[in-house]
Amino acid sequence: MRSKVIQFLLGLSVCASLALAQGPRGPLGPGGGRGFGPMSAFEHGQVVTGAPFTATLEETVTQKLADGNTITRTTTSQFARDSQGRTWLQTTTNGLGPWASASGKKTTLTFINDPVAGTGYTLDQSAMTATQRTLRTRANGAPEGMSRRQEFSESNAVKTSLGTQMMAPLPNLLQGTQITRTIPANTIGNAQAIVSTTTRWYSPDLKMVVMQTTTDPRMGTRTFQITNIQTGEPASTLFQVPSGYSVTARPGRAAMRLSQQ
């Protein structure tokens, strides 16, 4: 069961660390696509260099059921990125979906992406194991074409500036954007139009979104926020497999596009 949980989270974590390292033109940029929080990134992006920091990431999903019941799930993770674009993400979970632990026993997993070495690792702290994968890179940061679903989403999106605001300890103002997407009636079998709204605040210092809220009647409300921000280089040991861990290699499935910075 443990291996299934790790494999499931591995795919999510690769996207997560990549999405958290987006440049201003990526899904988490000021105009934005659909990249989101630590465990629900939808797109791969650029490797960001020259913007090191550490922080706490919190993502909350709230769903209201037809019977009036409410489901709320919160994921809190620790994150670090160095000036070379290497990322470190650590989260504690009791499993996801069909692999959730019935006993409620939690597992601490750490995800390391090192675009310099071209390798990534998933560390299971309790089992003292590390799963190594190869990161396939794309030269020149060439953008891939959008899927039909993405094209439809963007064609029905209205973007409005929310101005700017401060966020300590970042020196530059955050850039706010509201994005309203509408699925017209009878498009996907819906009797009425479906409207979803996203508000996001982008930091030019960190080159990523630091706060975002998305409300969609189909999925509920998702919020993402970065707190406890500390700029500067994180400890280099974060991006290394600790001594005493057994390492197993597996093929990588994620593709990174290296930015030319």
Write the layout of secondary structure elements.
Blueprint: H1 2-19, E1 46-47, E2 53-64, E3 70-81, E4 87-93, E5 107-114, E6 119-124, E7 129-134, E8 136-138, H2 148-155, E9 157-165, E10 174-183, E11 194-203, E12 208-216, E13 220-231, E14 246-250, E15 255-258
Description:
The chain is 10% helix and 44% strand. The protein has 261 residues and is mainly beta. The chain has a single domain (2-258), classed as Clam (outer membrane lipoprotein receptor (LolB), chain A), CATH 2.50.20. The strands form 2 sheets. It has a 12-stranded mixed β-sheet with strand order 9-10-11-12-13-2-3-4-5-6-7-14. Strands 1-15-8 form a 3-stranded parallel β-sheet, with no helix packed on it. Residues 4-45, 139-147 and 252-261 have low confidence and may be disordered.
What tags apply to this protein structure?
single chain, 261 residues, mainly beta, outer membrane lipoprotein receptor (LolB), chain A, 12-stranded mixed β-sheet, 3-stranded parallel β-sheet, 2 helices, 15 strands, disordered C terminus
Q: Give the count of helical stretches.
A: 2
Corresponding CATH architecture: Clam
The CATH first-level class comes to Mainly Beta
Gyration radius from CA atoms, angstroms: 19 Å
Strand order of the largest sheet: 9-10-11-12-13-2-3-4-5-6-7-14
Give the name of the CATH superfamily.
Answer: Lipoprotein localisation LolA/LolB/LppX
**Structure summary, number of beta strands:** 15
- Distance linking N and C termini: 42 Å
- Per the CATH scheme, the topology name is outer membrane lipoprotein receptor (LolB), chain A
Biggest sheet features: 12 strands, mixed
